[in-house]
Specification:
By secondary structure, the protein is an alpha+beta fold. It has helices at residues 2-48, 53-78, 83-100, 102-117, 157-161, 188-201, 236-254; strands spanning 125-128, 131-138, 142-146, 153-156, 165-167, 173-182, 212-218, 223-232. Strands 4-3-2-1-5 form a five-stranded antiparallel sheet. It has a three-stranded antiparallel sheet with strand order 6-8-7, with helices on one face.
């Protein structure tokens, strides 16, 4: 008798809630699919309109999670859950979690600032948060930077916003500044003209502004020249290193010496 009673009770619950559960599952599955497709469509549209990639990806994530939250609420409503009270409970829980994760949430706020003010974007070569390299991705909590040795550095967004940001890719031109010293016994005019010839001979060095060479200092053991050459940003390091090598080789050919620190030790013999 008791078995029949519980069986009938179970059947009544199944008949009453099975459709609600099925409806909730369908709403969640279809809604999630629509949210994903719609966020992808918006991202593709923004990229086609030549909107910044960082902003496009951030907008895609924001729209997806907003729509997903709406889908979850609709699924709970289909189950018969009072979403009004659920939202209140969820809000209180979010506040408690927010207080416990203030540091993490500050990273989210920093991500918003990065997206709005755009001090850098994906693909830029930057120095920020103690890391130097190419920006691979900007997430809600961190920025992923890849140095030239192909490591992966994950830097919290709050650490980036809280310090200096140097963006080496922001401008399309950069100036290569180098200092070279020659001996006081060397021909100053010859050394200066040699440096100018080296800069003018490099096709990567821009003609406007023109390369600049001048005596910058009469040092303790050398006459120092400052050289300045404007190049396209992509050629900066190639020109930097090749100029140093070319100057050393050319100075050697022309007999121009580059002084280096020396120490003379004089031994004094004491008489008995």
């Amino acid at each position: 008798m008791d078995i029949e009673k519980y069986t009938n009770l179970a059947l009544s619950y199944i008949s009453e809630y099975s459709l609600k559960i099925l409806a909730a599952l369908l709403i969640f599955i279809i809604g999630k699919w629509i949210a994903k497709k719609l966020s992808h469509l918006i991202r593709a549209t923004m990229i086609k309109a030549k909107v910044d990639l960082t902003l496009s990806e951030f907008t895609e994530s924001l729209i997806f999670f907003t729509l997903l939250a709406m889908v979850i609420l609709a699924s709970l409503n289909a189950l018969g859950v009072n979403t009004t009270s659920f939202i209140a409970v969820f809000g209180a829980a979010s506040l408690a979690v927010g207080l416990a994760l203030q540091g993490s949430l500050s990273n989210v706020g920093a991500a918003v600032l990065i997206i709005i003010f755009r001090p850098f974007k994906i693909g830029d070569f930057i120095e920020a948060g103690g890391a130097t390299g190419t920006v691979e991705d900007i997430t809600m909590f961190s920025t992923i930077i890849s140095p030239i040795d192909n490591r992966t550095i994950i830097v919290p967004n709050s650490k980036i916003i809280g310090g200096n940001i140097i963006n080496y890719s922001k401008k399309d031109k950069r100036r290569v500044d180098l200092v070279f010293g020659i001996s006081y016994d060397d021909d100053l005019r010859l050394a200066k003209q040699t440096l100018l010839d080296i800069l003018h001979a490099d096709e990567r060095v821009l003609k406007d502004p023109e390369p600049f060479v001048a005596v910058s200092e009469l040092g303790d053991s050398s006459v120092n020249f400052v050289t300045r050459a404007w190049v396209e940003t992509d050629h900066y390091w190639d020109v930097h290193f090749s100029t140093i090598e070319k100057v050393k080789l050319t100075f050697d050919e022309k007999g121009i010496s580059i002084p280096y620190p020396q120490m003379d030790v004089h031994m004094k013999k004491e008489e008995n």
